[in-house]
Amino acid sequence: MYRKFSLKNVLMAFCVIFSVFSFAADQIKDGQGSQAAVLAELLEANRNVEGKFLQVTYNDSGDQVQLSEGVFMLASPNRFVWDTINPFPQRIISDGEWLTIWDVDLEQATKKKVVNTLGQSPAALLGQPAAKVLPFYDVAFLGQQRFRLIPNSEEGLFGSLTLSFKNDVIGAMSIEDSLGQTTVIEFNDIETHEGVSEKNFVVDLPSDIDVFIEE
């Protein structure tokens, strides 16, 4: 239960992290046009970052139900590494085509097509022009380098998403799902890169683990 719920939240996070992770947040100012137009510009900005994360999930009563931490790397297009170190080792790696979820201590891994896993809304932000996708969301600038994204359809994967920046660098992301549970991801030691080796996104699975492939 813990692992499945944690994985769901991680994948939900990646639906939007790619699109808005590293951009010049000082461009989000009043008087620059609609918030959707501003966000569309931000979605096209640099998406290559790496650092550490602390992920905490709260239930609808505000009680903490999960906590995990680790390191990550993002690289466009649609490639990432999300390594959970505590409380249990888990690697989630995308090479842009395949997503691999490797539960190290369970000695099993699952491979899925990225397009099938991320699906649509808000994952469509990853592979489609922002101007084509953003009409399905209400975008609000909250001030202090913060903005909120709310699906205008009940079929959205989340109720609301709030992004917080400090000195133009992502600081935290808060996702509220349809059940009232909230996942907060704090980002630390963020660095940008101009490109990394493709080897970072190659999964070298041990030969003695169970591998499940979902087309």
Short note summarizing the structure:
The protein is an alpha+beta fold.
Task: List the keywords.
42% strand; globular; 215 residues; 12 strands; 12-stranded mixed sheet
Q: How would you explain this protein's 3D organization?
A:
The structure is a single chain. Helix content is 19%, strand content 42%. It is built from five helices and twelve strands. The protein has a twelve-stranded mixed β-sheet with strand order 7-8-9-10-11-1-2-3-4-5-6-12. It is globular. The two termini are 23 Å apart.
Mean pLDDT: 74
> Uncertain regions: pLDDT < 50 for 5+ in a row?
18-33, 119-127
What is the rounded distance between the termini? 23 Å
Q: Biggest sheet, open or closed, and with what strands and sense?
A: 12 strands, mixed
SS summary, helix count: 5
Number of strands: 12
Global geometry = globular
Order of H and E elements: HHEEEEEEHHHEEEEEE
Largest sheet strand order = 7-8-9-10-11-1-2-3-4-5-6-12
Q: Bin the strand percentage.
A: 35-45%
- What structural class do you assign from the helix and strand content? alpha+beta
Q: How much helicity do the residues have?
A: 10-25%
Radius of gyration: 17 Å
